[in-house]
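Supplementary Note 3. Input sequence used for the single-chain structure prediction.
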Amino acid sequence: MKYMNLSITELHELLKSGKVTSEELIKESLELSHEVQESCNAFVTILDDAKPTEVTDELLSGIPYGIKDNYSTKGILSTGSSNTLKDYVPFFDATAVEKLAKCGAVPVNKTVLDEFGMGGTGTTGHTGIVLNPWDKTRMTAGSSAGSAAAVAAGVYPYALGSDSGDSIRKPAGYCGIVGYKPTYGMISRYGLFAYASSIDHCGVLTRNVRDAAIVVDGMKGIDKNDMTSWDSSHIHLNDDLSDDVKGKKLFYIKELCEIENYPDANEELKEHLANFKNTLKIAESLGMEVEAISMDKNLITALPSVYVIIACAEATSNMSNLTGLIFGPRGEGDNYAEMMKDHRTKGFSSLIKRRFIIGSYVLQSENQERYFKNAQRVRRLIVDFIKECYKTHDALIMPVGTGPAKKFDSDKDMLSNETAALEEHLQIGNFGGFPSITIPNGFVSSLPVGVNITGNCYDDQNVLNIAYALEGAMDYKNQIAKEVK
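The predicted structure, written as discrete structure tokens, is reproduced below.
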């Protein structure tokens, strides 16, 4: 049997009973890492010298896992999947990694991401494109591409991700697994390479909801090194996980989920939205109420643009330290300005350069009012609308994107004005810092699709319980990718 196909709780029971050792789990996970690297290009670094840890009552002890390569890891290459940091080895661990180490968790690889987390395709990492283990002609989405591919392929039961727009939750949907980003600040961002600080979240990809609860329990907590972190010691996600959701009230955005709003819909979108409606029926069968709520079309249309402006502006500021003078490969030139220009020109992909240009433009004094400040105002309107809905409802439930994983070479999979908001609506969870989880809810074109549940800040338990109940009523828990022929 493949032990890495099992859940965290199943592996813990086997370890405690002595039926398997941490050494055996690590050996299997490393072998699978090399296999998946050959087939999917999921990793920047494979830690072949990973050492076992003592098996204790901590559920994560002795169990292998993966770390997205934008988390700082002491003495281990941490590139952010960028040539500007291709040789960077940090001297400290990110707080989330440090906390997992105290739980006895064993990292076995660092996973590929879209460069510095900027991108949703898994195609811009400096080590190459990450392929979807279900279908190598399709994307994993991003930016947590390698983590999603590895968990879906059964390399280990969980991997760390980060989410600034949908970077955990959409790859989870494309790969048929679970992706959870908790409330902003529940997990310290210290040691996570900053992309857009007001919307960056740490989180996890797993194959079931309980495993997600277990891992976040291990990572969460207030941290003196992150002033946005908060005390969650009273929250026990795994212990309080329950499938009793009778009386819970869910809502979805009517304008985004009704097929009549997409006159040019392809068959995959039609099937995806029909599948979503079936999931709503399952929710009702569990005793939950579901209501369609209308949202101002101007706010819906603005979603993608608001995200681009805010994210690019914050990224431009956060990454101004990537000069090649302090760290990273030094550029060539006769003075520091020429050296910086050479470093950044050669080091960044074209996508990153475009985003820096956008960020610089919207932050210029003559442009701030029209672009950056207006984007912040619209962000507030969007968040206020959703929070108003939370006064009468427990969670927002929505389909993930417009269907299954997109093909690499298909023009029809490019975003259109018609479907852009449906593809990008998960950004709402980042705008408000809301807890948000994606779980698999079926198949379209023989490929997995997902449904997302997003709740109010600090209401993570409620969000996980709703996801847990839905997961139990469907047949897509603990999926391992089977390549579509």
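Residues 10 and 238 are 15 Å apart (CA to CA). The two ends are 24 Å apart (CA to CA).
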